[in-house]
Specification:
Elements (H helix, E strand, L loop, with lengths): L10 E2 L2 E2 L1 E3 L2 E3 L6 E5 L6 E6 L3 H18 L4 H17 L1 H12 L3 H26 L3 E4 L10 E9 L2 E5 L7 H12 L3 E4 L6 H14 L6 E3 L4 H9 L6 E5 L3 H8 L5 E4 L5 E4 L5 H13 L11 E5 H15 L19 H16 L3 E2 L5 E2 L2 E2 L2 E4 L16 E7 L2 H10 L2 E2 L1 E5 L3 H10 L4 E4 L12 E2 L1 E2 L2 E2 L1 E2 L1 H7 L1 E9 L11 H4 L1
Parallel strand pairs: 2-6, 9-10, 9-12, 10-11, 12-13, 14-15, 14-22, 15-20, 19-20, 22-23
Antiparallel strand pairs: 1-2, 3-4, 5-6, 7-8, 8-28, 13-26, 16-19, 17-18, 21-25, 24-27
Helix pairs in contact: 2-4, 2-6, 3-4, 3-6, 4-5, 4-14, 5-14, 9-10
């Protein structure tokens, strides 16, 4: 169970502690933040409400610990990451239990997230050794007008303190996707977990603690965003911010100053279906892409743009599959579980009611109980409906019928988002042309949008983000290039004549 066994020390009565300077601590504020179970709508956990002064202390220790960590050999950094990954996977059950109770993720998917996270950490350790173990050697005479009098040596060095802010929907996986690259690159790491998902993150951080990382190198500070959010993101000790979430990231990016940013801020991922598409394949991917984890994924299919000539057939196939989706508690591994909060459910309902008022066709009856919304396919959606453009982050999927491929591309590109998209066709030439035309960070051909495998580049255009994720890209973003130039008194060429005469 969560908070028991090896995790006993992270809990103080009913309130989980925060992690600072290698110890689990209670906040001097004497206050806590409640975490509400989305399914029961009752308080499930409580975490510390940390203060700005505690943030200052964490940052001070992170700066100090980073200096020593940067001198730690790469193989040793990798060794500790592998150890943390093994501990995490060995303790997947209590961490998965936390995910079930604080974000209503189905039990089997919760276990998968923890195991995937362990694999990501290990992969990152190996990739980091390869990337950071290599430098570059340049010779001056490769540029016009220069003799070979300069040898340029370049290497990658850490940035300093990395602030990681993961979202509620993948709190463990998207936390380690920031933590592991930061650590292997020689940075220290301050984690601000989401409120929903904080307890899962605290359990995960304890696995790093048990692995034996130096004190102060990793910190996990919990609290209300209204009290410590801006204070964290604008803190002068922070040298890089990696954030995954909503439009809060836009505000962060405007305030952060001259530091590297890695931002993934959501999407309105379009699924363009051509007349020659395998409609059974499309329907299966719409279900997987649009309704897994109740649609609460940045890479979920958010709008279907289907050619009019095949729309009726596709809608019927999707309707038949929607009817088979199970709805209920996450503990029972239901396909559709409660969305994360009442405010989220209310927002989704607002999009549905707008579509209803404007004449969308409801393929199922709209049904809601508390935070639990039954899966809903909306046909004949028009561009004047909010659901055509806004990200529901729930189990509601709009279908727009299009008369040409150009119409579908134009709708996709008119969005302020540009995370991912997908196209279904048997013509690979058309698929490539459409992919080039879509203004998104990634286009999937004949498959639903997805983040992963975790070593693949993952990035968004426009309001969907800044920078690129994926193991290699994250390591590179969390480092900077250091150059050393050796200046020779006279030109020197390998195997050249006249060596003795120049001495």
């Amino acid at each position: 169970m969560a908070g028991t066994g090896i995790f006993t020390e992270i809990l103080d009565g009913e309130v989980y502690k925060y992690y600072s300077d290698g110890e689990w601590r209670t906040s001097s504020s004497g206050k806590s933040v409640a975490i509400v179970n989305p399914a029961t709508r009752k308080t499930q956990y409580k975490v510390q409400a940390c203060t700005q002064e505690e943030v200052n202390k964490v940052m001070e220790m992170a700066k100090s610990a980073q200096k020593s960590w940067a001198k730690t050999p790469l193989w040793k950094r990798a060794e500790l990451l592998h150890k943390a990954a093994a501990i995490l996977k060995d303790n997947k059950a209590p961490i998965a239990e936390s995910l079930v109770k604080e974000i209503a993720k189905p039990a089997k998917d919760s276990v998968t997230e923890v195991v995937r996270s362990g694999d990501l950490i290990s992969y990152c350790a190996e990739e980091g050794v390869r990337i950071l173990g290599e430098g570059k050697f340049l010779l001056s005479d490769s540029f016009p007008g220069n003799e070979r009098t300069k040898y340029c040596l370049t290497s990658k060095i850490p940035l300093g303190v990395v602030l990681a802010i993961p979202p509620f929907n993948y709190p463990v996986n998207l936390a380690v996707s920031k933590i592991a690259p930061a650590l292997i690159a020689g940075n220290s790491l301050v984690l601000k977990p989401p409120t929903q998902g904080a307890v899962s993150c605290l359990h995960m951080v304890h696995c790093f603690h048990l692995a034996g990382f130096p004190k102060g190198l990793i910190s996990c500070i919990t609290g209300k965003g209204s009290e410590i959010g801006d204070f964290l993101t604008m803190h002068p000790a922070v040298n890089c911010i990696s954030f995954t979430g909503g439009d809060t990231g836009i505000s962060i990016s405007k305030k952060a100053g001259m530091i590297p940013l890695q931002m993934e801020l959501g999407g309105k991922d379009a699924c363009i279906v051509l007349e020659d598409a395998d409609l059974d394949l499309v329907a299966s991917n719409i279900i997987k892409g649009g309704f897994s984890y109740s649609g609460q994924r940045c890479t979920a299919v958010k709008v279907v743009l289907v050619m009019e000539s095949v729309a009726d057939e596709l809608v019927e196939k999707v309707k038949a599959k929607v009817a088979k989706l199970t709805v209920g508690p996450p503990e029972e591994n239901c396909d559709i579980t409660a969305v994360v909060s009442e405010s989220s459910a209310n927002f989704i309902e607002g999009l549905v009611m707008d579509a209803k008022e404007k004449g969308a066709t409801f393929c199922q009856e709209y049904k809601r109980e508390g935070n639990l919304i039954w899966p809903l396919l909306l046909d004949n959606v028009r561009p004047d409906m909010r659901i055509a453009w806004e990200e529901p982050f729930g189990p509601v999927l709009p279908v727009l019928r299009i008369s040409s491929v150009e119409e579908g591309i134009n709708h996709c590109n008119a969005s302020n988002f540009g995370l991912q998209g997908c196209v279904f066709t048997k013509d690979i030439n058309k698929a490539m042309l459409i992919s080039d035309a879509m203004e998104t960070g990634t286009v999937q051909i004949n498959s639903a949008p997805a983040r992963g495998p975790d070593h693949f580049p993952f990035q968004g255009l426009k309001d969907s983000g800044i920078g690129s994720q994926g193991v290699t890209n994250s390591i590179n973003l969390m480092t900077k290039v250091k150059t050393t130039v050796i200046n020779l008194p006279t030109p020197s060429y390998s195997m050249g004549d006249g060596f003795i005469s120049r001495l």
